[in-house]
């Protein structure tokens, strides 16, 4: 038992000595000696670019091919004189187009007029019976010459009357008062008679009479204001005929 105690004491003494040597550096540090511990890191250098400075390069390879000047895409700007010249050119082109349109329209109108003249020349009046008076014949000839032209019914009849020396114009119902004329009541019709219609579907501001025409024989009359406001040879429309005025 005693031997065990001695052995334990010896072990304790050895452990105490070991602890003493272990803590000696700490105690020494406390007495004013500075102990530093350092760790080495690899050096690293970062180059920061100046973003406000434009990068330029002046070195060019000797065999570099930059192409010709025709390959350069350079924005083109116009001087004020060039802009004025372009505006003047555009205005001249627009004026030329307008002039071409006017000329084309005039050409078309001439063609239409030629067509109307052709149409009139193909429609002629002849009195085979010889019963038509000279005055009536002059009115009919004049009415035929106006076929295809643009005019209303009263203008057509007034021009037909002027061909025989009568100056008169009015509303359709007023042609009952043509100088030298009289109303026919027996229902007969003769070339040169003035035909007055009521309720044909037109309107002239008068008392329900809305059309007047010139009878030319064979159940036909020359009408103004017909099919597109032009003069035409058409039916005498006896079923709608209201008044017949005859001039000897």
Automatic annotation (TrEMBL):
Q: Where is the composition biased (Basic and acidic residues)?
A: 80-101
Classification via PROSITE patterns: NLPC_P60, PROKAR_LIPOPROTEIN
Q: Name one GO biological process term.
A: proteolysis
Q: Does the keyword Protease apply?
A: yes
Question: GO MF annotations for this entry?
Answer: cysteine-type peptidase activity
What keywords does the record list, in alphabetical order? Hydrolase, Protease, Signal, Thiol protease
Which residue range or ranges hold the NlpC/P60 domain? 112-248
Q: Which domain of life is it from?
A: Bacteria
Cited SUPFAM superfamilies: Cysteine proteinases
Annotated signal sequence range: 1-29
Entry's family note = Belongs to the peptidase C40 family.
The protein in question is named NlpC/P60 domain-containing protein
Provenance organism: Bifidobacterium longum (strain NCC 2705)
């Amino acid at each position: 038992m005693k031997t065990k105690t001695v052995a334990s004491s010896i072990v304790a003494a050895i452990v105490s000595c070991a602890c003493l040597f272990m803590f000696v550096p700490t105690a020494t540090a406390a007495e004013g000696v500075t102990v530093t511990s350092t760790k080495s890191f690899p050096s690293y250098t970062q180059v920061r670019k100046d973003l406000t400075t434009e990068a330029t390069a002046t070195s060019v390879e000797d065999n570099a091919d930059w192409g010709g000047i025709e390959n350069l895409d350079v924005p083109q700007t116009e001087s004020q004189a060039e802009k004025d010249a372009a505006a003047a050119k555009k205005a001249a082109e627009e004026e030329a187009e307008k002039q071409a349109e006017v000329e084309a329209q005039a050409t078309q109108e001439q063609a239409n007029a030629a067509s109307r003249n052709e149409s009139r020349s193909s429609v002629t009046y002849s009195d085979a019976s010889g019963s038509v008076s000279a005055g009536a014949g002059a009115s009919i000839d004049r009415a035929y010459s106006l076929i295809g032209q643009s005019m209303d019914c009263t203008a057509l009849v007034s021009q037909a009357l002027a061909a025989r020396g009568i100056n008169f114009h009015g509303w359709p119902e007023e042609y009952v008062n043509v100088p030298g004329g009289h109303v026919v009541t027996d229902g007969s019709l003769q070339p040169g008679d003035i035909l007055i219609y009521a309720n044909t579907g037109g309107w002239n501001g008068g008392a329900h009479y809305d059309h007047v025409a010139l009878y030319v024989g064979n159940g036909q009359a020359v009408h103004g204001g017909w099919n597109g406001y032009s003069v035409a040879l058409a039916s005498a429309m006896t079923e709608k005929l209201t008044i017949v005025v005859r001039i000897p």
